[in-house]
Design brief:
Mean pLDDT: 90
Number of helices: 6
GO molecular function: acyltransferase activity, transferring groups other than amino-acyl groups
Keywords: Acyltransferase, Transferase
Oligomer: single chain
Low-confidence stretches: none
CATH class of the largest domain: Alpha Beta
Structural class: alpha+beta
Protein name: GNAT family acetyltransferase
Length: 299
């Protein structure tokens, strides 16, 4: 990769996570820009070959980065190879020099023959940036469903602890064989991203449901049940599942994915969020109905 800046003391690198000095510099920049630290995720073995940093380095410091995550998408019932772009960042002292633009062009050129779809999520401060590279903004929906009151029951779920090796192995096994949660917009082969959320965002909200050999990520907040993900190789009866994870106070279920199996029962409305989905696809984007990209797949 030649950005035309090597003579100024800049260099470009990728796949350097085993280099402690450079990984530390990457983490320092991620903390500064996003408040995110990847080190524990790396130490536990979840930074694998599917997550690749493409970075510009000056004086042995990472000053700009564009990362990619390789995964599979299920779109309108069809499997597609995909590259999700994330961790797009530049140190404040080096902004305005076109570094992110040059890294984006490099990433798109490097992987154009390896995937059918590029996609990313961008906050409102950079919505203007990605259409320059051929990305199109997509409108997602928020899904919810009213439920009748329920009696408290033994829910049959076991809370998992990601600090325990046996629970890590259980998660790894189920994640490796998961089926997409939705035919409209589903994800598979996203073990690394899921485990980042498990370690950093939802460490107290992950459960094993033995009856379905499934991992359930959810929270009960007053009368609202927030259902974030259901990970299983097998078809899960969502009506039965909700009877186990809702409680006597539950009035509304909020789905953070597309709940295909409740198509006739759910309400949906345009998703109000600053993180907008952008797509760059070789073929026509063929989602004709409302959808929501699974939250736990966002890089």
């Amino acid at each position: 990769m030649n950005l035309g800046i090597e003579s100024s003391g800049y260099s470009t690198i990728c796949c350097y996570q085993e280099n402690e000095l450079l990984r530390k510099s990457f983490n320092e920049l991620a903390i500064k820009v996003f408040g995110i630290d990847f080190e524990d995720w790396y130490q536990k073995g979840y930074w694998d070959e599917n997550y690749v940093c493409h970075s510009i380095v000056k004086d042995k410091k990472v000053i700009s980065n564009v990362s990619i995550s390789k995964m599979n998408l299920m779109i309108s019932g069809k499997n597609k190879s995909a590259i999700q772009i994330g961790t797009v960042m530049t140190h404040p002292d080096f902004r305005g020099n076109g570094l992110s633009r040059q890294l984006m062009n490099h990433v798109l050129e490097t992987y154009q023959d390896e995937c059918e779809v590029f996609y990313l999520f961008a906050n409102d401060s950079v919505h203007h940036f990605y259409p320059k590279f051929g990305f199109t903004a997509m409108s997602e929906s928020h899904f919810s469903m009213k439920v009748s009151s329920r009696s408290l029951v033994d829910n049959g779920l076991r809370k998992l602890n990601c600090a325990y090796e046996k629970d890590q192995e259980l998660l790894k096994r189920i994640l490796q064989t998961r089926s997409p949660i939705s035919n409209q917009f589903g994800i598979s082969n996203n073990q690394g991203i899921f485990m980042f959320y498990a370690l950093n965002v939802f460490p107290d909200d992950i459960y094993f449901f033995e009856e379905y050999d499934a991992i359930i990520v959810y929270q009960n907040e007053g009368d609202i049940l927030q259902l974030y993900d259901v990970v299983s190789q097998h078809k899960v009866d969502f009506t039965d599942l909700l009877s186990h994870i809702s409680n006597i106070n539950t009035e509304t279920i909020h789905f953070h994915f597309t709940p295909d199996r409740f198509a006739e029962k759910v309400n949906y409305e345009p998703k109000k969020q600053s993180d907008l989905l952008f797509i760059k696809s070789k073929n026509d984007w063929n989602i004709k109905t409302a959808f929501c990209a699974p939250m736990l797949s966002h890089a």
